[in-house]
Amino acid sequence: MSDLLTRAEPVPADAYAGRQVTIRPAPAMARFSLRARSATDVKAILGVDVPTTIGATANGVACLGPDEWMLRTADGAALPDAHGKLVAVTDISHRNIGLIVEGERAIEVLSAGCPLDLAGFAIGRATRTIFETVEIIVEREAADRFHVEVWRSFAPWLWTALTQVASE
């Protein structure tokens, strides 16, 4: 019976484009939450330098807290092997989706429901925050582009809220 089930994507595949902003789903990717006491242990299992400052990003890894990192990588990537290390790795690929908000009005649209000063948010910075009452992770990828991570179950609401603000 379960082989007959299909997954419905929570947001439209087509981008919303208008009024100097585009909102679209991010490409498919694997996502992993990593919890560890030190960045050294995270670096050891990923094999790349990882940020040590909360809010910093490097090599697809965002430091979200003193003991928390999120890795975004190629779709279908294997779960990092943490055997023998004091690192908890959780695959959150199917829990989250990403939205790209870009254009001249990207800051304005996100600021409509986000309490952060996004104008002062440095390129490459990432943090957990909210849009109205929905928890998101926002990363500034360029002067006019943000990557927003949201739980799949909240994605339809967030899509509607963002596109409604963008259309105003």
Written description of the protein model:
The chain is an alpha+beta fold and 168 residues long. It folds into two domains: 13-28 and 95-167, Gyrase A, domain 2; 29-91, 2-Layer Sandwich (Alpha-Beta Plaits), CATH 3.30.70. Helices cover 16% and strands 38% of the residues. The chain has three helices and eleven strands, in the order E-E-E-H-E-E-E-E-E-H-E-E-E-H. The strands form two sheets. A six-stranded antiparallel beta sheet has the order 1-2-8-11-10-9. A hairpin with a 2-residue loop joins strand 4 (57-58) and strand 5 (61-65). The longest helix is centred in the last third of the chain and has 13 residues, at 155-167. The mean pLDDT is 94.
Topology (elements, then pairings):
Layout: E1 16-18, E2 21-25, E3 29-36, H1 39-46, E4 57-58, E5 61-65, E6 68-74, E7 87-91, E8 96-102, H2 106-111, E9 126-131, E10 134-142, E11 145-151, H3 155-167
Antiparallel strand pairs: 1-2, 2-8, 3-6, 3-7, 4-5, 5-6, 8-11, 9-10, 10-11
Number of domains: 2
Helix-strand makeup class: alpha+beta
Count of β-strands: 11
Order of helices and strands: EEEHEEEEEHEEEH
Instruction: Kindly provide the name of the CATH class of the largest domain.
Output: Alpha Beta
Beta content comes to: 35-45%
Strand ordering within the main sheet? 1-2-8-11-10-9
List keywords for this structure.
168 residues; alpha+beta; Alpha-Beta Plaits; 6-stranded antiparallel β-sheet; 5-stranded antiparallel β-sheet; 16% helix; globular
In short:
By secondary structure, this protein is of the alpha+beta class. Helix content is 16%, strand content 38%.
